[in-house]
Amino acid sequence: MHSAIEERIIKPARNVIGALRLPGDKSISHRYGMLAAFAEGTSRFTNFSTGADCASTLKCMQALGATVNKLSDGTIEVTGMGGRVTPSAEALDCGNSGSTMRMISGLLAPQAGTFTLIGDESLSRRPMERIRKPLAEMGARLALTEGHAPIVIEGTPLQSIDFSTPVPSAQVKTCILLAGLQTQGKTTVHESVRTRDHSELALRAFGAELERTLGSVSIQGQQTLHAINAAVPGDLSSAAFFLCAAALFPNSGLVLDWLGLNPTRAALLDVLTALGAHISVLNLEEKNAELVGTVQVTGPTGGMRSTAITGALAAQLIDELPVLAAIAPYTSGGIRIRDAKELRVKESDRIALVAKNLRAMGAEVEEFEDGLDVPGGQTLHGATIDSGGDHRIAMAFSVAALRAEGETLIQGAESAAISFPEFFDLLDQVAER
Fold it and tell me: In what order do the strands lie in the sheet with 408-411?
């Protein structure tokens, strides 16, 4: 079901100022929803992500036998199925969510029954071979359609493996850990670049034991998960748009409360600091193994400097790169992005779309197979932005539009609802015009 194509006009702003509390972290919500549905007992979550992607996860888990209730105060209650799923006669619809499809495949591969996973047009183009390979090594029966969804899984008992991921991916790592949780013996995943560790922290919160070294994580099979009560921290990837908006204006002042500050995600704060923004973190505490705190950001008095994002940093910042590229023309010396080829196989080819839309706004930009060079010291004008149905492109260029001359029209603005339905209202709240 597609909502009507929506357009949004973004007017230039004079400053960004105010305080916000952001919707729950998508990555954490996916994992809490999935693990709660698989665990014993009833879990309760406040500030669960409001995005369509996490709703897809809950819908799939419901189809497999979990009970999901949304209470009047917004709390989500999930009663788990104690480690045994009920095969669904219908295909499991993952919508636009790659996280749902890749992670749930690992959960289902060792279960009894046949499962079919489908997704929307965009998800059906995304690469799924990366999960098929490790699962097949464990003995799973998993059929793809030319490397993509639909995925048909014939559940069968698996054996534990020792696997090195060729492309660093938190989703692939999670997929293997969820399968390993249900096998005999110890399953180990090795990574050349450490990816987000929300799954490890969530598994631990639900009572599983894991071993971690610098480059690997291991899980012992046949463990039982138990329900938890948790408040989901605010989403740092969603915060990225507001942090970058604040960095655009000298003497801006933005406070983001109850924000998830997981170290494997917080590289953005280092990049913004390198660009000259003033960032302070207050009231840091640990909740269910995740770090949560309040972030204060002030734009640099003399404008933003320049930086390069390459190597491991590019992998860690993969979701934040579009908005960093979108604000790059306003820096003094530009931003150089490399080693980010993964951007080409996201919800859209994000490298091509960022370049296209920057040019539409009058910017110079050079496109590479694995990144972009965006020179600094440029003046942008309002334009019509093609979001390509990609939520992060729609939001990134809404931020760039705040400093442009004239109005900007965002086409496909409804795509933002996939990850962040409240985005435009919150942006209006903090943009001083």
Answer: 7-10, 408-411, 384-386
